[in-house]
Design goal:
Blueprint (H helix, E strand, L loop, with lengths): L3 E6 L2 E6 L4 E5 L13 E2 L6 E7 L1 E2 L2 E2 L14 E2 L13 E7 L2 E4 L3 E9 L8 E2 L4 E2 L2 E2 L5 E5 L6 E6 L5 E6 L1 H11 L8 E2 L2 E2 L8 E13 L10 E4 L5 E6 L4 E3 L8 E3 L4 E3 L5 E3 L6 E10 L10 H4 L2 E5 L6 E3 L13 E9 L4 E3 L5 E4 L3 H9 L2 H7 L5 H12 L5 H22 L3 H31 L1
Parallel strand pairs: 5-8, 5-22
Antiparallel strand pairs: 1-2, 2-10, 3-4, 3-9, 6-7, 9-17, 11-12, 11-16, 11-20, 13-14, 13-17, 15-16, 18-19, 20-21, 20-22, 23-26, 24-25, 25-29, 27-28, 27-30, 30-31, 30-32
Helix pairs in contact: 3-4, 4-6, 4-7, 5-7
Length: 457
């Protein structure tokens, strides 16, 4: 049910959409790289967002990405502050609310960000550095503290039914928490500075995003806010410096199956080892024709004929379209692979390619019928011998556990042989037909006996 509640509160009229939420979308870095972090319903979710970061902490400098891994953008420097940065290293968030507020008198509706303390210690309001890409000022922010240079603002002006973009600096947040709670450090902080991650570990910063009203007269203090939307679950920001690695299957050729105008890839055959890095997010299959090796750098989306997003958990990722080969015109393709973790780090698998790859109508039929070798030998998925073997499989072998085991073994081992057979001259296929003849006769015999028994009974 969707309904509206009207109620008065100190300083204004609240139009409360009963299903409204505050949503937060990380924009730089984060779960899937620039601009692709999912919106979070802060009322019901405690979702982690991952960042690959760098820093200069005295004489200690963060590790750099291990080649050939790469980011599309420079890692965020969490040692920067609003006073030492031009804005490029601020954590950017797009925040929206569906609440409608009509304020009265000297009262504004605002967005306040709070940093939770270590081990769940009380949250403290922290400074907002930028709004919609520009430094906070009196027209976009309020609750200014002039004790620091530059001065800090602890609330961003935000009307109901509005979306704004805010920028936060982890170093400033830690400093703010230490000033507002001298008995504990903020989450992800060591005293007034961030807890800089090292190889093998991460740092976690927890933030609340809250929407409410506060008197405009509180121009130089931390906001005394009446929160309309107090979200129970924090946004968890995970900072990492480790790079995941991708591994190639021992026999990568067996990880794919040719099809009609495409091929199929077993994502289970590939693995991403993350250690303390974020878990796997995406799996890209890159395809180029002929002798053109796929490009495995930050230009992969524009420099390859195909870049298809596959899944590690899918056993039959459809990769295409690619042109079909014929007996007169073989069209070869090459495939290579890049993994992406939840921090947006891309990890190519060097020296892991499938080449050559062919597609054809007959290969497509083999994929659908799973009679790989027979279909390749007779060059006809509807040949009597192929139909008899398929019927033998479906009606007899699939009816008991031993038969099903044999079928699964055949389906896992025969595609490479069928692919090889497709490319052989006719006399090789005739030899295979002769080898298959006893199985065809057995299938016909069993089919005949079953038919006779059915008639007799």
């Amino acid at each position: 049910m969707h309904y509206i509640l009207l109620r008065w509160f100190a300083g204004g009229l609240l139009l409360h959409d009963a299903v409204a939420i505050v949503s937060v979308r990380p924009l730089n870095g984060g779960t899937l790289g620039t601009g692709t972090g999912a919106s979070v319903n802060m009322m019901v979710e405690a979702v982690p967002f991952y960042y690959f970061v760098t820093y200069a902490n005295g004489g200690v400098v963060a590790p750099t990405p291990s080649p050939p891994a790469f980011l599309m953008d420079a890692p965020l420097d969490i040692s920067k502050t609003a006073a030492t940065d031009t804005g490029s290293n601020a954590l950017q968030f797009r925040v929206s609310t569906d609440y409608s507020v009509v304020t009265t008198g000297a009262t504004n509706s605002v967005l306040v960000v709070q940093l939770i303390g270590e081990n769940g210690a009380s949250p403290v309001p922290v400074s907002i550095a930028t709004v919609n890409g520009a430094p906070c000022n009196g027209s976009t922010c309020q609750n200014r503290s002039i004790s620091l240079t530059p001065s800090r603002y602890y609330a961003a002006k935000m009307s109901g039914n509005q979306t704004i973009q805010i920028g936060l600096y982890p170093s400033d947040l830690c400093y703010d928490y230490q000033g507002g709670n001298t008995t504990a450090s903020g989450s992800g902080c060591t005293g007034p500075v961030p807890s800089y991650p090292v190889s093998g570990s991460t740092a976690k910063m927890q933030l609340f995003f809250k929407f409410g009203t506060t008197p405009d007269s509180q121009a130089t203090t931390v906001p005394s806010t009446t929160f309309i939307d107090t979200t129970p679950n924090p946004l968890n920001l995970i900072f990492q410096v480790d790079t995941a690695t991708m591994s190639c299957p021992a026999n990568v050729a067996q990880a794919y199956m040719p099809g009609d105008g495409q091929f199929f890839l077993d994502g289970h055959a590939f693995a991403m080892t993350t250690g303390s890095a974020a878990g796997p997010a995406k799996f890209y299959v890159l395809v180029n024709p002929g002798a053109n090796a796929p490009v495995l750098n930050s230009s992969f989306q524009s420099e390859n004929m195909l870049h298809i997003t596959a899944s590690f958990s899918e056993t039959s990722n459809a990769i295409g379209p690619i042109a079909n080969s014929t007996n007169q015109d073989l069209i070869a393709y090459n495939a290579a692979f890049i993994g992406q973790d939840l921090a947006g780090m891309y990890t190519p698998i060097v020296s892991c390619t499938i080449s050559p790859i062919y597609a054809s109508e007959i290969l497509g039929f083999m994929t659908k019928s799973h009679c790989f070798v027979a279909t390749a030998a007779f060059d006809d998925g509807d040949h009597l011998a192929v139909r008899m073997l398929r019927q033998f499989r479906d009606e007899y072998l699939e009816s008991h556990i031993v038969g099903r085991f044999l079928v699964r073994q055949y389906e896992s081992l025969s595609p490479p042989l069928a692919h090889w057979l497709m490319l052989q001259p006719a006399w090789v296929k005739v030899l295979v037909q002769i080898m298959l003849l006893p199985f065809v006769l057995l299938a016909m015999l069993i089919a005949g006996l079953v038919t006779c028994l059915q008639v007799t009974l």
